[in-house]
């Protein structure tokens, strides 16, 4: 067995000039680990190809997709460390069948994404971008036409009370809002203990002043928020999506925003990414849009990077890492053999 544990890092961590976008994103942990070498992949591709990954024991992946074809012949690969919590871009079944662990970084995104949701809530309720445009255009006299909405006493509805959803409620607590959640996979007593009311999705949409999407994209949640459900929302309500674009029917949302059937929206994600510059949703003045990166801060990247690199170093030392998505892969004979061989390494994290 090769004594060097080789790690490939996708090139989308780099800016066009070849420098890292947000510091070392935890790569110093790999740099300092004996017996571990890392490098950026030679190409920046939307989907990783088999010939790009065959020589690596581990991959640190930001945005590129990983398919069954990616993993063909990747006999060295033991872990795919996804930088972030979403893994709809990864063929999880193919990873499991290949004996490759898939890990995510929930600790790194919890606070940054929740803070991003609160940023949208406050910017929308205070009509921040509209007032910015008025000021730049010297239209101060029109500010009375754009009165904001205070959040105290309003109802915050969060779709999905997982890692990020719970943190949204934590950050929102000082604002004195009423908290609702729709989450089919939690215990009602646990939700009540957190001061949150567990309701149906339809009830959440009818009652909420701010509807925040914080669930994962799955076949069940694709277009979970469709035209019929948008019609349940108050005309004064706002929709915020910092999860995944296809959870919301974007065409239906565009119609609702254009016709002022809801007050506005904050969108960090879209059905098609990058969003088409000619997409009609970009012409609307009651929506704030960001490029699937509102939470991209030094805090977010360092937290995600350290978590992902720690998972890689765990595997390099024969340890089972935290935050494994496909624990079934641990039963794969090839992975068990590799972990046993890695266990003789002196790798610390």
Explain this structure.
- This protein has 2 domains: 148 residues, NAD(P)-binding Rossmann-like Domain (Rossmann fold); 182 residues, NAD(P)-binding Rossmann-like Domain (Rossmann fold), CATH 3.40.50.
- Helix 4 packs across helix 6 and helix 4 packs antiparallel against helix 11.
- The protein has 349 residues and is α/β, with parallel strands linked by helices.
- A 7-stranded parallel sheet has the order 8-7-6-9-10-11-12, with helices on both faces.
- It is built from 12 helices and 12 strands.
- Strand 9, helix 9 and strand 10 form a beta-alpha-beta unit.
- The mean pLDDT is 95.
Per-chain topology:
Layout: E1 5-9, H1 27-32, E2 36-40, H2 50-53, E3 58-61, E4 79-82, H3 92-97, E5 101-103, H4 106-125, H5 128-136, E6 155-159, H6 163-172, E7 178-182, H7 188-193, E8 197-198, H8 201-207, E9 210-213, H9 227-230, E10 238-241, H10 250-258, E11 264-267, E12 287-289, H11 298-316, H12 333-342
Parallel strand pairs: 1-2, 1-3, 3-4, 4-5, 6-7, 6-9, 7-8, 9-10, 10-11, 11-12
Helix pairs in contact: 4-6, 4-11
């Amino acid at each position: 067995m090769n004594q060097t544990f080789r790690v490939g890092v996708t090139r989308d961590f780099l800016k066009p000039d070849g420098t890292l976008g947000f510091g070392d994103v935890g790569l110093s942990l790999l740099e300092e680990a004996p017996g571990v070498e890392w490098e950026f992949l030679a190409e920046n591709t939307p989907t990783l190809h088999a010939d790009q990954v065959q020589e690596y024991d581990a991959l640190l992946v930001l945005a590129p997709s990983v398919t069954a074809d990616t993993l063909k012949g990747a006999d060295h690969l033991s872990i795919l460390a996804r930088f972030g919590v979403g893994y709809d871009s990864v063929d999880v079944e193919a990873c499991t069948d290949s004996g490759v662990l898939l890990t995510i970084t929930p600790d790194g995104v919890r606070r940054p994404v929740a803070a991003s949701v609160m940023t949208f809530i406050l910017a929308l309720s205070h009509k921040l971008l509209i007032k910015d445009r008025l000021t730049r255009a010297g239209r101060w006299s029109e500010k009375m036409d754009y009165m904001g909405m205070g959040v105290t006493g309003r109802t915050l509805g969060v779709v999905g009370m997982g890692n990020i959803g719970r943190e949204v409620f934590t950050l929102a607590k000082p604002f004195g809002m009423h908290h609702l959640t729709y989450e089919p996979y939690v215990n009602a007593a646990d939700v009540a203990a957190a001061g949150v009311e567990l309701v149906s999705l339809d009830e959440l949409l009818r009652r909420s002043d701010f509807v925040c999407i914080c669930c994962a994209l799955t076949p069940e949640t694709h277009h979970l928020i469709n035209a019929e459900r948008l019609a349940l929302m108050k005309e004064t309500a706002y929709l915020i999506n910092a999860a995944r674009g296809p959870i919301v029917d974007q065409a239906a949302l565009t119609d609702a925003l254009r016709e002022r059937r809801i007050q506005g929206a904050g969108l960090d994600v879209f059905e098609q990414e990058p969003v088409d510059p000619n997409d009609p949703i970009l012409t609307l003045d009651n929506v704030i849009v960001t490029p699937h990166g509102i939470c991209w801060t030094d805090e977010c990247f360092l937290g995600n990077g350290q978590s992902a690199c720690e998972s890689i170093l765990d595997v390099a030392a024969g340890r089972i890492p935290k935050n494994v998505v496909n624990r079934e892969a641990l039963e794969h004979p090839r992975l068990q053999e590799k972990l046993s061989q890695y266990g003789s390494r002196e790798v610390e994290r």
